[in-house]
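idk why but the lab printer keeps eating my pages so im just putting this in chat instead. protein + nicotinamide-adenine-dinucleotide:
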Amino acid sequence: MRLRTSVAVAMGETFFMCRPEFYGVEYVINPWMEGNVGRAHRPLARQQWDHLHAVLARQATVEVIEPIRGLPDMPFTANAGLVLGKGFIPAHFRFPQRQPEVMHFTEWFRHRGYRIIELPGQPTFEGEGDALFQPGEPLLWGGYGVRTSLQVYRELTDVVDVEIIPLRLVDQRFYHLDTCFCPLPDGRIVYYPDAFDHDSLAAITARIPPDSRCEVTSADALHFACNAIVVGRTYIANFVSEALRAQLAAWDFEVVISPLTEFILAGGAAKCLALRLHHAAAAEVAKATRSDATVSERVVEVQGHLLDSGLMNTVLDCVTDGGGSFEIGTFQPGLRHDQDSHARVRVTAPSPERLDAILGRLMGLGARVADDEVDARLEVVTHAGVAPTDFYSTTIFPTDVRVAGRWVRARGQRMDAALVVDDAGAVPRARCRLLRDLGIGDRVVCGVAGVRVHPPPASSATDGFRFMSAGVSSERRVELAVERVAWEMRRVRQRAGKIVIVAGPVVIHTGGGLHLASLIRRGYVQALLGGNGLATHDIEHATFGTSLGVDLRRGSPVPGGHQHHLKAINVVRACGGIADAVRQGVIRSGIMYECVTHQVPFALAGSIRDDGPLPETHMDLLAAQAEYARLIEGADMILMLASMLHAIGVGNMTPSGVRLICVDINAAVVTKLGDRGSLDATGIVTDVGLFLNLLDTSLATNGLHPEAPHDLHD
Ligand code: NAD
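predcted complex ->
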C-alpha cells in the first residue's frame, strides 16, 4: 500500500482526510443512503471535498491517506478510529461493508509510529464518529446505541484517564454522535436534543450549563449543522441557520460554509470527513487524575422457557430500553419443550445507577445477578417518610435480602415498597414498608446487591385459560372461563380459603348486583372491596329498583331517577351508616345487605367523584389503603370486577401467589393487571353482568362439595 502525506500550514492542529477518488453510495447502511445508491456525483463530490480541504488547510495541518478502490466510505475518516496522543484505537465497524477500511487506516498510523491499541473483546466502535473529546477538558462524550456499543466505553476507561459520559442515540438518522453533537472550546456544545434518550439529555444538562448549550432545530440537524469541524474559532459545516450562526457569533465563532451535498447522500458531512490527530484534551490526559469508571457492568443468569415464553426477548429489550447494552456470554437452549433454557448475559449500563435500575427490572423477570453473595447495602432513613435516593423498590414476588451473611425472606411482600432490615436481634428480619411508613432510623436496602427475587418460573404459553386477556373473548370462551373460575372458587372454599371481591358500580348497572349478592349469601365472598359508587348504586337498587336512575328490570330510565342515588345516600346517612340502615330494615336486599347480614367485612375507598359520601366510605385514602391491605391479607383468590381504579390499586398491594381474576370490558385494563408479570393473573374481557350471571348459575348448579367447611352460609 502506498501512503501519502500532504502537510499544509502547521497551526498546531492536525486533521486526517481521504480523497474521495472511489467515493460513492454503493450500499445502504444508514437511512440517508436509502434510495441514493449510485446517485452520488463523484466529480462534484471531489470539488466539495477539495473545498473543505482548502478551508481546513488554511487553519491546520491536513494529512491525507491514499484512497483504496472498492472502499467507497473511506473518505469518512472520522470513523477510522480514535487518536490518543501517540496511540491509535482502530475502529471495529458494525457493518461488514466498512470493515476492510480498518487495516488500511491502522497501517497508516502504525507506519507513522502510533501505538495501535486494540480494545479487548472487539466491541463495535466507530471512532471519532461517536467518541468526541470536549476541547481542553479531560472529558470524552461517548455516543452509543446505533453503531458503537456501550461496552467500548467500559473498555476505554482502562485506556484513557478522562471522564467518559456515554450518550445513547435513539434516532437512526443520527447514527453517529458527530451527526448531532458538536463540542466547542470553553465548555460549550451545539446539539440536537431529539437524537438522544431522556437519561442522556439529563447527563448533558447536568454537565453543561444552559448558557453554554446551543440546541439546534431539526432543520439545522438534518442539514448536518452539528457535523462541524471546529478549528480555533472557526466553525466549518455544510449548513448553519441564521439562528445558529447568531449564537455562534455571540460565542465568538466565525462560520465557514463548505457545501457537502454529495456526501450527505451517504449520511455524512464536514466532521465525518476529517479525523482530528491532536486533541487538547488528549494532551492533558497525562495530567488528569484517573476518574472512576461510570460505565458499569454485571453478569446475569436467566433460566426457564426463554424461547417459547418470549422471556429472552423481554430480558434483552429490558436492557436496551433501560439505556444499556448486552452481550450474551452463553446460551444453552432447552432441546425439548419440557426443558429449560439457560443464558448468561453481560449487561452494560452508562452508570452504576442505571445498571441498578436495569438489574432491578431483570430480577423482577426472574434473572439472577451472578456472584450476588454479598450483603445488601443498608442506608438509614433521615427524614420520616422519605427513603434514601437509590432505595430498592419491591416487586410482587417473594424476595430475599442478604444480611450479615445470611439470606432473609422479606415479610409483607407487595409492590412499590422499600425493604427495611432489622438486624438488631439474633435473627435479622426484613419487611416491605411503604415510603410513607418509613421512620427515622429505619435501615433501608439500597441498590440491588444482596437482593434476590423469586418470580414463578416462566412457563410456556400452553395454558389458554390464563391468556384469555389477549383480545376480546368469544361467548363460548367466556363460558369456559367462567366454568373454570367457578371450579377454582369451589376448591378454595372447600379448604376454607379466602376469596376477596373488588367491584365497581358497573356491576350494579349491568344487573350483576343480584348475582354478586347471591355469591355473598352462599359463602363465596370473605371480603368486599369497592368504592362509594358500588355501595351507593347497590343501595339505590335495593331501595328504588334503579341504578343511576335506570330501572334494571325494564332497562329504561325512570322519571326523576337521576336523584335516586343521592336519596339513597341521604337515607343511609340518616340511619348513621349502612349497617344501621340494614338493621333498621331500610336496606333489605343487595350486596351491602348480604355483607352486613353475613358478617362479610367490606371496605369502601373514597374518590374525587364521590357523592355523599356514605358514612362508611373512607375519604382518608391512607386509611382506605390500610383497610384494603388488611382485608386482602391471607387471600387465596381475588376477583376484580369492572373497576379499573380499585383493581389496579389492589393489584399493586397483592403479593404474587394470590390468584387474580380480572373481569373488564376493556382489554387494556386486564392487560395492565397482567403486566405485573404474574402468572397467577387471568383477564376475562366481557360484560361483568353476564360474567356474574354465568358464575352464579354455575356455582348454584354444581354447588359445593359435601365436605365443604361449615362457615359457609346456606
Ligand atoms: P373506573 O373507570 O376505574 O372503572 C370502571 C371499569 O369498568 C372500566 O375499566 C371499564 O372498562 C369497566 N366497564 C365498563 N362497563 C363494563 C361492563 N359492562 N362490563 C365490564 N366492565 C365494564 O371507574 P369506577 O371504579 O367505576 O369508579 C371510580 C371511582 O369513582 C370509584 O371509587 C367509585 O366508587 C367512584 N364513583 C362514585 C360514584 C358516586 O359516588 N355516585 C359513582 C360512580 C363512581
